[in-house]
Write a structure and sequence with these properties.
Strand order of the largest sheet: 1-9-10-11-12-18-16-15-14
Structural class: alpha+beta
Distance between the termini: 34 Å
Pfam families: Glyco_hydro_65C (PF03633), Glyco_hydro_65m (PF03632)
Number of helices: 16
GO biological process, one term: carbohydrate metabolic process
Protein name: Protein-glucosylgalactosylhydroxylysine glucosidase
Number of strands: 28
Organism: Eudyptula minor
Catalytic activity: (5R)-5-O-[alpha-D-glucosyl-(1->2)-beta-D-galactosyl]-5-hydroxy-L-lysyl-[collagen] + H2O = (5R)-5-O-(beta-D-galactosyl)-5-hydroxy-L-lysyl-[collagen] + D-glucose
Shape: globular
Strand content: 15-25%
Largest sheet: 9 strands, antiparallel
Oligomer: single chain
Radius of gyration: 26 Å
Length: 673
C-alpha cells in the first residue's frame, strides 16, 4: 500500500475522527455514502413534499466494520487513496495482515463493493479469524421496501419513495441486491492468503439492478472488480490534474478537493441514467435535516461547474442537461410569482420547482437564475457545442431566462434606467434590497449572452433584451470609485460572504484595476471571518489579478481552517457548522488555483491566461485543460510557460489553435504534441 507520508494524494491515519460527519466519502455519480454509515443515497431519488423533500435514505449493506477479537497489539491504519478512489482499513500483527477495502465503482455506477483480504506472514500456521460487525437492517423511513426473491446468491429488496415532491410528481422505485455478510471470515491453516468480495447493486429497475449485479459477479470471477474501478480512476486523473512544486498541505488540499469533486461527476461515455446534479454535500449527504437536504443550489453552477468544465466538458454538459430537464419547473416558479419566462429555484430537487423550506430565499435570492445561465455561457465559449442549444433544449432555456429578467425589471423615470427590486444578494445578511450589484450584473450578462446566441443562430434578437441589458442599473459610486453592494449600502456594513468581489471574477464585469482594488479593500475587512468556505478563494483570485501575490495567499490560507483531518473533508463554516463534505468550498478553492494562479479566463474568443503565484511555489502543472475539443497541458514556472497539445479533435476546427502574447501580439501556432 502506498505510504501516505510523501504522497499528497494518499491520506492515512491511525484513528478515525471523533465526529462521524468527517469520515471519508465513497461516491460515484449515482450512489454515495460515508464510510461506516448505515445509509446510502441514490442520485435524484428524493422523498417528501416541497420544502420537506430530501435524499431518500436507503439502508447500506456496505456499512461493515472489520475487527479481530482479543487482539490488542494490532497496528491499525485507515487510508483514503484518492488515486484509486478507495478507502481501506488495515489491521496488522506479527502473524498476518487483514485489509478491508470499500469503494463506489466509478464506471459501473450502480455498484458499491467491499472486500476483506487476510494474508499471513511466513511463519504462522494458525487459522486466522476476523469478525464483521454490521447493523444493517433492510428498512427505510423513506421507502416502502418489499423483499423479493434471492438472485444469484444475493438478497433483494425494492420499493417506492413514500411522498412525491409535488402532487402527481415522480415516486421512483429503488431496487437493491447485496451479497449477504457473514459474522466472521477465517483463513484456514493451510491457506497463505484469501480475499472475499461483497457486492451491492442499486438501480431504479429490476432489469438494471440484476444486470449490474451479474456484471459485478463476472468481474469478481476473473479477479478484476477492484482493478477495473482503480483503472477508471487512473484514466480520470490522467485527463485532469493540478500539481505543483510547493507546500505539502496545499498539494494535499488540491488532491482532496479534486477527489471529492471528481467522485460526483458522471463517468465518460453513455451514462445509462439521468444525472441529477451536485448538491453542496454530494451524494454521501443530504438526509433530512443535513446538508440542505441534498438540494441543488447555485453552488453547483457557480462554484463547482467551472472546474469540471475546464477538465471534463462531457460531465459539464450533463449538469446543464439537468437544468434543461428542470425548465418546466422554472417556468412554473416564474409564473407563480407573476413573472414571465423561467426562474430557477434557489433550491432544486426532482422537478425544478422551488423546494427551499424558507420562502424568503426562493422569493428573493433570484441571482441563481443568472448563475445557471452563466454556466451555459462558459460551456458555449469553451466547447462551441451548438447541438446542446439547437437540438437539446439549451436555446429554449436561454430565451426563457432572458424573458424572466426583462419581466423582473421596472423602469425608473427618475434615474432613467431599469431597476430590479426586492431581492436578496449573495450576501444573505441583507434582504428586500433594490439593485443588488451582483444580481443586476448577472442579469445583464444573461441578456447579453442570449442576444449573442440568437445572433449566432441567425434568430432575430428581441429589442427588449438589448434595451434591458443596456439600461439596467449596475450601482457604482463614482466618488469613492467602488461598487456599493446595493442601493443604500453604507461602507462598513457587515457582509456574510463573497458578493461584490464576484463582479471581477467570475463575472468579469468591465472595471479598471483601481475599482477592482477598491472593491477588494472595501469588502475584505467587513466580510464575516467564519462565513462560508468559498469566500476567501474569490478574494484570492482578485488579489492575484492585481499581482498582489502575498495578499492573495493570506486569503487562500484562511480556507485551511475549513479542511478537517485526516481525510480533508471540508466544513462549510470554520467553526464546523453548516454542510460537511462541502463541495462548494472545494470548488472555490480549486478555482483560486485553476483560474487564480494560472489567470485562466474563458472569453467569447479565447482562453486567456496570465499567471501569478506565491514565492513558495516554483512550478505549476495543469494537465487536461479542454478547449474546443483539444486537451492541453500547461507547465508554468516563474520564467516560462509551456503549452502542449496532448489531444486534438477528430474533425479539426476551421482555425487551428494558437497562443498569442497580448502585449506584443506575437503568435505561436499549437499542433498536437
Amino acid at each position: 500500500m502506498a505510504d501516505g507520508k510523501d504522497d499528497p494524494a494518499v491520506f492515512t491515519s491511525t484513528s478515525l475522527p471523533s465526529d462521524p460527519r468527517l469520515l471519508a466519502t465513497v461516491t460515484n455519480a449515482y450512489l454515495g455514502t460515508r464510510v461506516y454509515r448505515d445509509i446510502l443515497h441514490v442520485n435524484g431519488v428524493y422523498n417528501g413534499a416541497v420544502g420537506d423533500t430530501h435524499r431518500a435514505d436507503i439502508p447500506s449493506p456496505v456499512n461493515v466494520r472489520m475487527t479481530v477479537p482479543g487482539a490488542d497489539s494490532l497496528a491499525e491504519t485507515f487510508t483514503l487513496n484518492t488515486r484509486t478512489g478507495t478507502f481501506s482499513h488495515v489491521l496488522q500483527s506479527t502473524d498476518y495482515t487483514a485489509t478491508h477495502q470499500i469503494y463506489a465503482h466509478h464506471s459501473l455506477v450502480h455498484l458499491m463493493a467491499f472486500s476483506i483480504t487476510i494474508q499471513r506472514s511466513a511463519h504462522s500456521t494458525q487459522p486466522i479469524t476476523v469478525q464483521l460487525r454490521t447493523s444493517f437492517v433492510p428498512k427505510s423511513r423513506d421507502l416502502d421496501l418489499n423483499q423479493g426473491p434471492d438472485f444469484q446468491g444475493a438478497h433483494y429488496v425494492y420499493g417506492k419513495t413514500l411522498v412525491p415532491e409535488v402532487e402527481g410528481g415522480p415516486r421512483p422505485t429503488v431496487h437493491m441486491l447485496w451479497t449477504p455478510v457473514p459474522q466472521d471470515l477465517t483463513l484456514r491453516g493451510e491457506e497463505r492468503e484469501r480475499s472475499w468480495e461483497f457486492l451491492t447493486a442499486v438501480a431504479e429497475s429490476e432489469e438494471e439492478v440484476k444486470r449490474s449485479y451479474s456484471k459485478g459477479l463476472a468481474l469478481i470471477a476473473v479477479g478484476s472488480l477492484h482493478s477495473s474501478h482503480a483503472h477508471a480512476w487512473t484514466m480520470l486523473w490522467r485527463g485532469c490534474c493540478i500539481d505543483l512544486d510547493g507546500p505539502l498541505p496545499l498539494r494535499q488540499a488540491l488532491y482532496g478537493c479534486l477527489y471529492y469533486l471528481l467522485s460526483a461527476i458522471p463517468p465518460r461515455g453513455n451514462l445509462g441514467f439521468l444525472f441529477h446534479g451536485i448538491s453542496p454535500g454530494g451524494l454521501s449527504n443530504g438526509t433530512q435535516g443535513e446538508d440542505y437536504w441534498g438540494h441543488i443550489f447555485w453552488d453547483q453552477d457557480t462554484w463547482m461547474f467551472p472546474n469540471i468544465l475546464l477538465f471534463y466538458p462531457e460531465a459539464a454538459r450533463a449538469i446543464l442537461e439537468y437544468r434543461i430537464r428542470m425548465l418546466e419547473g422554472a417556468l412554473h416558479n416564474a409564473q407563480e410569482q407573476g413573472y414571465k419566462g423561467a426562474k430557477f429555484p434557489w433550491e432544486s430537487a426532482a422537478t425544478g420547482r422551488e423546494v427551499c423550506p424558507e420562502e424568503i430565499y426562493g422569493a428573493q435570492e433570484i441571482h441563481v437564475t443568472g448563475d445557471v445561465l452563466m454556466a451555459f455561457e462558459q460551456y458555449y465559449c469553451t466547447t462551441q457545442d451548438q447541438k446542446l442549444f439547437r437540438e437539446d433544449g439549451g436555446w429554449e432555456l436561454v430565451g426563457a431566462v432572458a424573458q424572466y429578467w426583462c419581466s423582473r425589471m421596472v423602469w425608473s423615470e427618475e434615474e432613467q434606467c431599469y431597476h430590479i427590486k426586492g431581492v436578496m444578494p449573495p450576501d444573505e445578511y441583507h434582504y428586500r434590497v433594490d439593485n443588488s450589484v451582483y444580481t443586476n450584473a448577472v442579469a445583464q450578462r444573461s441578456l447579453n449572452f442570449a442576444a449573442d446566441v440568437a445572433r449566432d443562430f441567425l434568430i432575430p434578437v428581441p429589442e427588449e433584451w438589448v434595451d434591458c441589458a443596456k439600461k439596467v442599473k449596475v450601482p457604482f459610486d463614482a466618488e469613492k470609485k467602488y461598487h456599493p453592494e446595493y442601493d443604500g449600502y453604507s461602507p462598513g456594513e457587515p457582509v456574510k460572504q463573497a458578493d461584490v468581489v464576484l463582479l471581477g471574477f467570475p463575472l468579469m464585469h468591465p472595471m479598471s484595476s483601481e475599482v477592482r482594488r477598491n472593491d477588494l479593500e472595501m469588502y475584505e475587512p467587513v466580510t464575516e471571518m467564519d462565513g462560508p468556505a468559498m469566500t476567501w478563494s474569490m478574494f484570492a483570485v482578485g488579489w492575484l489579478e492585481l499581482k498582489e501575490v502575498q495578499r492573495a495567499q493570506s486569503q487562500l490560507n484562511k480556507c485551511f481552517s475549513n479542511i478537517t483531518e485526516p481525510f480533508k473533508i471540508w466544513v462549510e463554516n470554520s467553526d464546523g457548522s453548516g454542510a460537511v463534505n462541502f463541495l462548494t468550498g472545494m470548488g472555490g478553492f480549486l478555482q483560486a488555483v485553476l483560474f487564480g494562479y494560472t489567470g485562466f479566463r474563458i472569453t467569447k474568443t479565447s482562453l486567456r491566461f496570465n499567471p501569478a503565484f506565491p514565492d513558495d511555489i516554483n512550478k505549476l502543472k495543469v494537465t487536461g485543460v479542454s478547449y474546443f475539443g483539444n486537451k492541453l497541458k500547461f507547465t508554468i514556472t516563474k520564467e516560462e510557460i509551456r503549452i502542449k497539445v496532448t489531444e486534438s479533435p477528430r474533425d479539426p476546427p476551421a482555425s487551428p489553435l494558437e497562443a498569442v502574447l497580448e502585449e506584443s501580439g506575437q503568435q505561436f501556432p499549437l499542433c498536437e504534441g
